[in-house]
Amino acid sequence: MPATLQAFILTFSTLCGSTVVSGILSSPTNVRLTSYNMNLVLTWNPPKGAASGLIYTTEYNTSVIPYRVGCVNISTLNCDFTRLNTSMRPAIIEYGKYFGRVRAQLGSESSAWVESNTITMDKDTIIGSPNVSLFSNGATIEVSIKDPVFAVSTLRNVYSFATYNITYWKNSQREKTRHISNIQQNRVVLNDLDPWTEYCIQVQINTERNPKPSKLSGIVCESTTNEEAAPWVAAIVTFVFMAMAVALVVVAVVYRERISNFLCPKDALPQHFKEYLLAHPNSTIYMDMRNSHPPEEIYHQISIIADDRSVEGEVPLEVARTACSKQCDVTVEER
Ligand SMILES: *[C@@H]1O[C@H](CO)[C@@H](O)[C@H](O)[C@H]1NC(C)=O
Ligand SMILES: *[C@@H]1O[C@H](CO)[C@@H](O)[C@H](O)[C@H]1NC(C)=O
Ligand SMILES: *[C@@H]1O[C@H](CO)[C@@H](O)[C@H](O)[C@H]1NC(C)=O
Ligand SMILES: *[C@@H]1O[C@H](CO)[C@@H](O)[C@H](O)[C@H]1NC(C)=O
Ligand SMILES: *[C@@H]1O[C@H](CO)[C@@H](O)[C@H](O)[C@H]1NC(C)=O
Q1: Which of 114, 195, 267, 299 is the most buried (most CB within 10 A)?
Q2: Residue 125 in contact with residue 38, Cβ under 8 Å?
Q3: pTM, full prediction
């Protein structure tokens, strides 16, 4: 019965039309979910023989929460779920177990979803390197450690028992390394060092929960100086200061006569100079200034008496006041 079969095939293809269409576009490949410093990034390769102009949409879920929208209609080949603009804050939690998936789109066609591996944030994230600074002080070096910045939460919040493993060596003897481990403080003083020697230091973070080794810090080097340097310099400075003070006192005692002569001279001023200074000035301007009196101020009495009559009654008062300000000797009275 070819007709029946034909009808069946037609019906089937109509029913499954959308699935068939969405299957036309091949799917992204090599889909993987990774985490570095507590971010969560889905990365993929384009489908084999992909046309240009493909866009991608991603989603993520946890073992208990169904798929949520991640990046939509993007043309890049990765999506950072910790940088999404979602109303959920944070979009990713530090102990979650996540899956991601991605599909390609071209016009109205979509590929099938491709699921990723799973990532448990605190167990699988790769912890980046700490940032190390050194401060040399005599024959000791202070190591100051800054934790890597996490995309979600902080190192100390996620791993409360994180410790530092500090490795250090003389720059001239790379093979002879020494370690201090299980350090919880982020400031450590190395004090078993030789003076006048350059040491290099590298730090690694250890967490108990995360089995992956964290990234080593960059190697930083610093030289020690002489331990005795600081007290010795201080002693010399004190000695020089005391010697100068003693010398000053001696000079003051030996030359006290000359110094007092210089400060309070015994020689008197010439007589005519003294007279000149004491004489009354007789310039006429000065005399005028001395004899002048402050200008006399003239006052006139003004009384203003309230007028509770109608508005027209106030007009003459206004006039009178104007006149007053000019003639200045008016007494306004109630009419
Ligand atoms: C999340 O996705 C994975 C892989 O696709 C799936 O096995 C799991 O059941 C999904 N979780 C939920 C809650 O749907
Ligand atoms: C998130 O939203 C801000 C403004 O609200 C916008 O500038 C930014 O481009 C958005 N980022 C993404 C990845 O959509
Ligand atoms: C993504 O692109 C599809 C067509 O390719 C369009 O229908 C859809 O509205 C777009 N979504 C967003 C959020 O831009
Ligand atoms: C380390 O810290 C210093 C000072 O705070 C800063 O200048 C430097 O950029 C940091 N390095 C890294 C790799 O974060
Ligand atoms: C510290 O690091 C060094 C070298 O990186 C390693 O040999 C040593 O075993 C580590 N110590 C601990 C306790 O992890």
Answers
A1: 114
A2: yes
A3: 0.64
104 vs 176: CA distance, rounded Å: 54
What's the CA-to-centroid distance between 59 and ligand 3, angstroms?
14
Largest CA distance in the chain: 153
In a domain, 327, yes or no: yes
**Structure token pair of residue 93:** 């939690």
* pLDDT for the residue 287: 66
Of the residues 193, 223, 253, the one at which a domain ends: 223
Cβ(22) – ligand 5 distance below 6 Å: no
User: How many domains is the chain built from?
Assistant: 3
From the CB of 167, is ligand 5 less than 6 Å away? yes
- How confident is the model over 35-75, as pLDDT tens digits? 999 999 999 999 988 888 999 999 999 988 999 999 999 99
How far apart CA 144 and CA 190 sit, in angstroms, is 11
* 107 Cα nearest atom in ligand 3: 5
C-alpha 69 to ligand 3 mean position (Å): 13
The finding on whether 73 has its CB within 6 A of some atom of ligand 3 is yes
Residue type at position 74 = I
CB atoms within 10 A of CB 118: 14
Better-scored residue on pLDDT, 129 or 263: 129
Domain around 316: 299-335
> pLDDT of 269-325, one tens digit each?
677 766 766 766 666 666 676 676 666 777 777 777 766 654 444 444 444 444 444
Phi, psi of 334 (to 5 degrees): -70, 130
How far is C-alpha 59 from the chain's CA centre? Answer: 34
Instruction: Say whether both 202 and 163 belong to one domain.
Output: yes
